[in-house]
Every structure is written in structure tokens, then in C-alpha cells.
Amino acid sequence: MSIAPNFKDYRFCLLAAALLSLSVVFFHPQTSAQVSLYRLVFVVDITRSMNTEDYQLDKQPVSRLQFVKHALRQELLKLPCGSQVGLGVFTERRSTLLFEPIEVCSGFAEIDAALAALDWRMAWAADSRIASGLLSTLEMLQGKDQNLVFFSDGQEAPPPNPRYKPDLSALKDKVAGVIIGVGGDQLAPIPKFDAKGQRQGFYKPEDVPHRSSFGESDLNPEKIQGYDARNAPFGSEAASGDEHMSRLHESYLRQLAAESGLQYRRLTDADSLDQALQQAAFAKPGTHTVDSSWRYAGLALLFLVMVYLK
Amino acid sequence: MNLGFEYPWVLLGLGLCLLPIWRIGAVANPYPWLAILPIDPLSLAISALIRLLGGLAIGGLILGLAGAYLQEQQVERIGHGAHIVMLLDRSNSMDNTFAGKTPETQGEESKASAARRLLNQFVDQRAHDLIGIAAYSTSPLFVLPLTENKAAIHAAIDATALPALAYTNVSKGLSMALEFFDSRPVTGSRIVLLVSDGAAVIDPDSEAALRELFKQRQVSLYWVFLRTANSPGLFEMPDDPRDDNAQAMPERYLHLFFNSLHIPYQAYEAETPGALQQAIDDINRLENRPLHYVERIPKQDLSTRCYAWAAAMLLGLLGLKLCETRP
């Protein structure tokens, strides 16, 4: 008896092929796939106007800040693993970073907790000079390979005086990113809180400055009632206005975006944020290695099953 | 055992394991009359073995293809370490050198960057600690919860490289740091590591609140005071007794306040980066109480083992195949 004929048996060949195919698996075959990764720095406006409640979540009115936090926490789940997210806050005339970008999957719990803890009471000063804040943010991020995502409602407090507008031209196009407009189109009252964080109704007209009273007015002095160059550069009349109410100042944010070379998008729901962030302009090429051993194991299975078919 | 599958639908393929029962997968030899053959237990056993090998090989392949894995497990261990909340001062003066100047020439290090470098080293040395970070200026900033994610902690420490903020409001910062220990089991050491270069007066209301918080939370406090040259120190008595008040010497009074808390408290007056190193070494040496911590055993892939199993079965089948006889 010889075993030689057995080598020619088709079942033997199939079994040998299955074993051969399966043995490839033990060399850990991998294929690499191109994926889009993101390196984003979220800077969130935490000034008082962001407490205005003109968004809805589960049919409950929520403040702009809460809605931004909600949208960001949703977005964390949507970013592909390997992407990185940093977080900062803006108030007064500058912003600060809480942390440099952290990988989203391994650092999910930490980023999520930091987002949840964002609060208007973190503000170290109370002005809201958005143009200056944007300038300081751009200075902070220039030369880094990070995309800025700046959330704001565009309401400066006190209102901006075009004469003293910060010059963003030096930093134009130095940082790629997007300004996300937050808020509704209708004027809404801004909640007021006392030193202990208790709510005290809303801001009233007499609580807020309705114009900037620093330096000189941008108007022609002849047009200003009761103008006096030294004693009353803004005229003698008390300013009145609706600065105690808030809405999204979209045209102002668009203008800031144009001056700084950023894009402008509006936050309407969590999906709109995802579209604004996961765009080709921000994508950084990354490779993702995929284990391809299933192909060889599958082939082995096919061969093995064929042994039993006839 | 917490077995999981990446692609559970592949498990439907386990039905294929029954194939070898239906067909044995061997050469059929013609025989005139089967009924004449006596029942041979050995032959039956070998036949069953061949079918079993086939079924097991198919099963192994299917389990491997379904991506079998052991779920992430948490094992409670006892080690040495602490829960540390770093409370970092982000006030303007941290951007100056220890000599109180803006860093100009190369080699001069600002207080903030010295602190950053040493804290980063410190974090790397503490293997099992949970570390949280809060910062404060005029108001407290929550940065990171207590975490073991070292990369995140480094990212937060590095973010203090950016220009600092406004004033120093240490009492709010301390209350925030103490809140980190809410709803945490008391195990190991609990530390608040305050890194600042100045102090401020604590108003009586927050003083009372802080006293209570410190007592409840059983926290020990380390204050690394990055003293600028020629500024009043923690232990210095003023020359003029009229200056001996909280407004004129907030650092001394904050130190007295911490001492009066009756908690483990240690102050370090660091006038050079070297002294800061000393403080960190002390913490490394002293704060190593037994700590219950949870070690995460990451998800383990089992598919390679399934494939190895299937390969072994295939090898057996191949061997048996060679023993086949032909007419």
C-alpha cells in the first residue's frame, strides 16, 4: 500500500489548501486604509449672553451654552478614533485653553467631563470683546496644526466701536477653522444671576451699556447731540438700545470670519455641527491598519466546506 | 467569562459544523453488500473522530471569523498611590521668572514653564495615581476629572504654557479642587497640590466653608509656593507690625489659615526650579498609602487562538486523509 495516490486526491488538495491559507493568518496580515482624522480646538464663548435661552432640547428651553455643550458631546461620539480635541473658553477679550488636543476615543470620559463642566462662572472677567478674543485665539493657535472651532453669539458687550476695531489682517489665513454662530434671530432676554449663582430675573435696559464710551465716537462730531471733544465725546444724550436683549449677530460674525480667513457656519442642531466640522478642509490624512486575516480564514473555510460537498 | 463577538451574525455559520455528519468527506469504496459487514466499534469510533475533527475545524474557523474576544475586564488591585488634584494658578505673574522678570534671554525659565516641566515629570513617576486638574484665576476653571489617562493629563499641563489670565482667587479654586473628591471612595492618599506664586485674602464666608470641606474630604494639602525673589515669604515676619495683616501679607496669612485647618499640610517655598523638585520628591516619598485601584485589562482578541485550533484540526484531518485506502 502506498500513500502516493492520496496526494492526488482532490479532497487532500482542498484540505492542504485550507491549511496553507489558514497558516497565512499567523503572520498577521494587515491592510492599511486611509481615514480622515481631525485635530480640532473648541473655543466656547462663556459670556453672559450665552445664557440666553433660545434653543430647545427635549421641548425644554435651554441656554445657548448648554446647547453648545450638548452638541459638542454628541460630536465627540461621531469623530473617528485617532482624532484629537482640545478645549478652551473665551470671555473678556481673550481665550484660554483648558487642555491641548487629546485623542477622542481613549480620552472620551475626560473630554466629556470637561465639556459638561463648562460654565459661565468660569469667566474671569465680564466683558465680551469677541473681536479681541478671536485675535488672541488666533495668536494662540498660529503655527500649530490645529483647526479652530469658535462658538459665539456675536454679541459684544459693550457694543463694538468700529473706530477701535482690532486688526485681524496680520493673522488672516494663518489658522484654518470655523466660527459657529450660536443663538436665535429673535431678541431674547438674558438671564441674570447673583454672586451665588441664583437666578435673579433678566437683565434690564439700565443694567448694561448700550454703547462703548471709550475714546472717541466713530460718528461725525457734528451729528452728535451735545458733542464736546473733551467732556462729552459721545454727546450729552443717554444711550438707549436693546443690548440687554440678545440675538445671534450673524452679520458681525460673518464679517469677523471674512477678516480672519475662517469659515462661518450656524449651529442649528447637532447634525449641523457635524457637517461643519467633519469637512474635507479640516481632514488630516491618517492611516488606519485593518486586520485582514478574515480573508484568509474565510478562504480556508471555503476549501474545507468544499471537502464535504460531494 | 465575558465572551464577545465583533460580528455576531457570522455565528449563523456554526450550522456548517453539521456538514461532517451528513458527509464524511472521504473516498467511497464500492462494496457488494454492506449488510454483510459486521458492526465494528473501532471503525465507528474512527468515523466519529473524523466527523468530529471536521466539525471542530469548521467551528474554530467560524468563531475566529466572528471575531471572538474577551471583554475588557476590571480587576481590583491594591497598590501604592494617591488621588491627586493639581490646582494650578493661572494668574499673570506666573509668566514671570523666579526673579520677577519677563523671561528674555535663553535659559531663563518662567515660573509657569518650570512648574509645567516638573509637573509633567511628576505625573510620569506616579504609576497608579488618579490625577485631576483644576486651574484658577479670578474664577475656578474645571480642567480634567480624576483620571489615569496620562496623555490627557500632559495635554492639560501643557495648556498652561499659554498666557495666563487675570487675578488670584485662591478660595474658589480650593473649593473646586475639593469637589473633585465628592462621591469618591476614601482610599489611598487624597492630595490637593496647590501650585501658585501668590495668594489672596480669603473672605470669612469662604473660609468657614473651606474649613468644613477640608475636614469632610480628609484631604492633605501641599502648597508649592513659587516665591519670587524679594517678595514676602510664607514664614517671614514683617518688619513693621502694622503690616502684619492679611491684606499686606496674604501669603503668610494663607499659610496660617492652612495650618489652622488641622489637616496634613506641607508648604514649600520654591525660589528656584530645584526647590520645586524637592517638593515633588517629598510627595513621591510620603504619599504612598495603600490604594485600591482598578486595573483595566484590555479586551483580548481570541480569533487567532480559534484559528490555531482550526489549524490543528485541519492537520489531523490531513493526516487521516493520508491513511485512506483506495480500491
From TrEMBL, chain A:
CDD domains: vWFA. This is VWA domain-containing protein. It holds the Pfam family VWA_2. SMART domains: VWA (SM00327). Residues 1-33 form the signal peptide. Residues 202-241 are annotated as: Disordered. It comes from the Bacteria. Coiled coil: none annotated. The keyword RNA-binding does not apply. Keywords: Signal. InterPro entries: VWF_A (IPR002035), vWFA_dom_sf (IPR036465). Residues 37-216 form the VWFA domain. Gene3D superfamilies: von Willebrand factor, type A domain.
TrEMBL record, chain B:
Pfam families: VWA_2. Residues 83-283 form the VWFA domain. The chain crosses the membrane at residues 42-70. SMART domains: VWA (SM00327). Keywords: Membrane, Transmembrane, Transmembrane helix. This is VWA domain-containing protein. It comes from Methylomonas fluvii.
